[in-house]
Amino acid sequence: MKYMTSSEIREKFLSYFEDKGCKRMHSSSLIPDDPSLLLTSAGMVQFKPYFLQQKKLPSKYVGTTTAQKCVRTNDIDIIGRTGRHLSFFEMLGNFSFGAYFKREMCDWAIDFSVNAMGLDFDKLWFSVYKDDDESIEIWKDLGVPEDRIVKLGEEDNFWRAGPTGPCGPCSELYYDQGPEFGCGSPDCAPGCDCDRYLEYWNLVFTQYDGQEDGTLLPLPKKNIDTGMGLERMAAILQGVQSNFETDILRSLVGVGEKLFNVKYGDDEKIDLSLRIIADHSRAVTFMIADGILPGNEGREYVLRRLLRRCVIKAYLLGFEGTVLNNYIEEIFNIMGDVYPELIDNKDLILRVVKSEEERFGTTLRQGTELLDDLLNEDIKDLIIPGEDVFILHDTYGFPMEVTKEIAEDRGFSIDEAGFNACMEEQRSRARAANAEEAEAAWDVESAELIRGISATKFVGYDTLSADSKVVALVNDNKRVDVLKPGETGVVFVEKTPFYGEMGGQVGDQGKIYNDKVELQVTDTFHPDKPLYAHKVKVIKGALRVDDKVSLEVDKLRRSRISRNHTATHILHWALRNVLGDHVKQAGSYVAPDRLRFDFTHFEAMTRDQIAEVEKMANDKIMEAVSVATYNTSLNEARKSGVTALFGEKYGDEVRVVNTGDFSSELCGGCHVSNTSEIGLVKVTIETSVGANARRIEAVTSFDAYDYCTERLNILDNSADILRCPIKQVPDRIEKNIADIKRLNKDIEIIASKAADDAFDEVMDSVFETEAGYKLCIHNILNLEGNDIKRAWDLLTDHGGDNIACVVGGINNGKALLLAAGTDKAVQAGFNAVDVIKAISKHIQGGGGGKPRMAQAGGKNIEGIDDALNAAREMLS
User: C-alpha distances in angstroms, 75 versus 155, 193, 245, 625, 650?
Assistant: First the structure.
């Protein structure tokens, strides 16, 4: 058996099936087209339209073959503890959509394993579904001894997308690594949990349509879906026991050895951390390259959790500072030639990871403090409850082993059973969600709804009107033969000028008509990429399947959309020039009245930067440069330096939009033919849309004119109010603000002098009571409520420790009474609560407090003097 690198294995697989007539296709994005799926976790995801017969390969191909990048995190806590589980892996696959089936695939599987990979045929084992006699006979015909064919049940060897729909038996290929890898059981065989029989290739024969009653009907076209784990095959051919010892992952483990100054194999705890960081660093790098940014929900949270696990592991190894960019640079070196999106987004990946690591440093310290607080509590039997361990794990990113290690250092243990129960509950929810996702991936009901509808021909780049034929109608989620007057529904035609919502650009509106019927098109969308669906309302007549109709796009609305879409390309170019090459489009919305452009950046733009972007964009608009489009292959586009948008997914053939000689982007949207058609672009707002992304909103053409006119009117009105020329408005406002500040300061000085004068009057009113304490009763006419309490503070400062007061004043237009006394005055008989209760009726109010201080408020300001006289009579 000859040693092979991972790159050699990958290329041999793709070349082998290319030679068999399969079309080699690039890996699809980790962000699947299907919104029901969180992440791409299998090679078949991008081929769903082919399996459903909605798209067809050119006749010269018998199928497809790919090396698909995949992310799975269902078993994230197992990763690093076994040699097989990974969060990121490459799945080598070949797929047939009715051209070849079981016998050819089994033959090729043995041929490739033995002759291309050099595996020992005598060490190959095969599992089959227990009722799949056909596969058993095929393997036997190909020379496989019957004792090396193992029958397994439906759980292991029968694939289903859901309770109903496409399904079929599986046959898996295993490599016998020898008894030294086994469990020692005499019954050890493929399907055992030990490592002796390493499953490296799964062949799925999708040949049935499962019914609700459990019966299996043959599919009209039988499909092949296979998956070979590249890392597992590399482990076999490189003679190692673990995926982490294969060339790519071992290189990343080596990065950790240098960083942490350790040697892999000396300490299992350290080895575990090295394996986890090596694995997670690949997932983090590829996820960001495909347009995923750290966040708190969905796939963004998966990315954040993987990244944070790396930081925690490095922290426990005593490493201070950012760590992952060292791994990422190595990933660029060893995988960038196969996955060019890594190099295209290199600067962005490095900046996002560094920013997230630095931000998490604070969270990590807080989590450590929370654990410290937990350990300082009175914990029963010195065992930390499993629920608390799970909260630290799930909310703060603290793995159970981290909590356990820190706790044991302090003489505590953790309730692992309780923690595992919480984890199992979470996994059960995840498994249920995954099952729903797998079923949704095929989306059987909607697939049935559009099954048999041929791909729509789009002619809307060249014309805004076309004649066509109705091929299908949908009303109330059902296929119908007719749409009647007043009804709403969805219309499918053979060809259309209507652009379907995609790539951030909204769908077209307009009308569909003939001599007998007229429909208003309110939106156009893609239920699946080859199809254009027209949302309609029937204005008159009845529309039937097979009717010939004319389609007409709203011309003015489309032209406004086109202006805004070209403006987004120009703004993208300007933002990169002003802010740097790390700027990548992270989302957009192109409507007729406005545009929104999200981009990767790490701080708010300054006013000067926004102005510079605006100026650069409008300079290009005023230059009146031409906008041209052409179609080419994705590889050729990349070679010519065309910008592939961050997170976008592309097929083999792409459309390039060139704006002059300064902007070249892959784009399927609608554009102007010359930048002068845009007229003007004006940025209206710049905001944050996350830790690593910013958003600008802008208007063009008529809307830019309206926006500027509205603001000029505001400026004109401001100038009229300020009675100055427009150019002097900013200076006049600054002068007025300065004058107001000066006047307020003067008022404060006057008020302070008034308070001093009032306080002198207050002190003059102090007299000695028969009870032996000093008493002040006074109406502070010119001061507000806060100054009444201030007067009491001054009294205690200057009147000694045996004094009391009853004062009145005005607070926010209402009467206020305050009674207060020192401890000695209260001991001598003064009671503030009793006083307030007795006199508050004079201000038509009420209040309360404590013997030392009480207050009341009321609406009768004129009653303040009567209340104070009542207090004087009561206390004298």
Answer: 18, 15, 20, 54, 30
The predicted pLDDT at position 732 comes to 93
CA 172, distance to chain mean position in Å, is: 35
Please give the torsion angle defined by the CA atoms of residues 330, 313, 316 and 351, in that order, rounded to the nearest 10 degrees: 60
pLDDT surpassing 90 at residue 814: no
Interhelix angle 386-396/400-409, nearest 10 degrees: 120
- Write the single-letter amino acid at 709: T
Quick one: tokens of 535?
């949302």
DSSP letter, residue 115: I
Q: Supply the pLDDT for residue 433.
A: 54
Nearest by Cα to 200 from 168, 238, 147: 238
What is d(CA 167, CA 163) in angstroms, rounded to the nearest whole number?
Answer: 9
Residue 47 has pLDDT above 90, yes or no: no
d(CA 408, CA 414): 8
Tokens, residue 559: 């032209």
Report strand pairing: 510-513 vs 518-525.
Answer: antiparallel
Q: Which helix (H) or strand (E) holds 342?
A: helix 340-344
Neighbours of 250 (CB within 10 A): 17
In whole angstroms, what is the distance from residue 276 CA to residue 316 CA? 13
Contact at 8 Å (CB) between 564 and 590? yes
Does position 442 have pLDDT exceeding 70, yes or no? Answer: no
Burial classification of residue 329, based on how many CB atoms lie within 10 Å of its CB (0-12 exposed, 13-18 middle, 19 or more buried): middle
- Residue 788 · residue 780 · CB < 8 Å: yes
Q: Is 710 exposed, middle or buried (0-12, 13-18, 19+ CB in 10 A)?
A: exposed
Residue type, 664: S
- List Cα–Cα distances, 7 to 81, 90, 229, 244, 802, in angstroms: 25, 11, 13, 16, 92
What is the C-alpha separation between 731 and 791, in angstroms, rounded? 42
Indicate the DSSP class of residue 405. H
Q: CA 182, 184, 190, 194 torsion: positive or negative?
A: negative
pLDDT at 441 over 50: no
What spatial distance separates the first Cα and last Cα of the chain, rounded to whole Å?
113
Q: Note the pLDDT tens digit of each residue in 139-168.
A: 999 999 999 999 999 988 998 866 777 889
Please give the helix or strand (H or E) that residue 249 lies within, else none. Answer: helix 247-260
- Cβ neighbors of 56 (< 8 A, separation 6 or more) are 50, 97
Q: Which residues sit opposite 624 in a β-bridge?
A: none
Residue type, position 767, single letter: F
